[in-house]
């Protein structure tokens, strides 16, 4: 199922994220502009429900504050020179291992608010960009991640207590002086880890509320 970047009604414009419906029965709505957000939201929710969504969250308008807050998405950053080093090794995702990477990612991120499900299309993109990695040490898998340029896009430790090592390993291949990432505030363990490593919140990106 494809997302609808521009969903237009007489009440305004929204973006509908539907690709997780076949896997998790979840949909996300981002209100772009509306003078009647209540009516726009109702139409968006009805459309998502018709597509099979059983859980719907939304962002983009102060009207949504009447609903339960799920999470706040933050931008964070840190000077790379302040991050420690590690002797853990990075192994790029290959055609033979991309299925394993996706499986780990989807299992570990299933309960993290606004963590998108990744399918075979994402796997092909991962291979094309070459930004997906496994983190090993002494022949043991510690975690996986996604990183390139100045952005740490995903950090997942599969062994308890190895989050810091996974971060250090992934940051070792970044090329900019500043490391940036995005994190859901509801993912408290991740936020605590990043703050302990020296990352600072720089911007509130969005607030997501459960509307179904």
The proportion of residues in beta strands is 35-45%
Task: Report the major sheet.
Answer: 11 strands, mixed
> Count of helices?
6
Q: Write out the CATH superfamily name of the largest domain.
A: Gcn5-related N-acetyltransferase (GNAT)
Rg over CA atoms, rounded to whole Å, is 18 Å
Number of DSSP-assigned strands: 11
CATH fold-level assignment of the largest domain: Aminopeptidase
Derived from helix and strand composition plus strand pairing, the structural class reads alpha+beta
CATH architecture of the largest domain: 3-Layer(aba) Sandwich
Shape: globular
CATH class of the largest domain: Alpha Beta
What is the helix/strand order? EEHEHEEEHHEEEHEHE
Question: Which runs of at least 5 residues are low in confidence (pLDDT < 50)?
Answer: none
Helix content: 25-40%
Overall mean pLDDT = 95
- How far apart are the first and last residues' alpha carbons, in Å? 19 Å
Spatial strand sequence of the major β-sheet: 1-2-3-4-11-5-10-9-8-7-6
What do these coordinates show?
The chain has helices at residues 21-24, 37-50, 98-109, 120-129, 163-171, 188-196, and strands at 4-9, 12-17, 26-34, 55-59, 69-79, 89-92, 132-137, 140-148, 151-157, 178-184, 200-210. The chain is of the alpha+beta class and 212 residues long. The protein folds into two domains: 4-67, no CATH class; 74-206, Gcn5-related N-acetyltransferase (GNAT) (Aminopeptidase, 3-Layer(aba) Sandwich), CATH 3.40.630. The longest helix is centred in the N-terminal third of the chain and has 14 residues, at 37-50. It is globular and about 55 Å long.
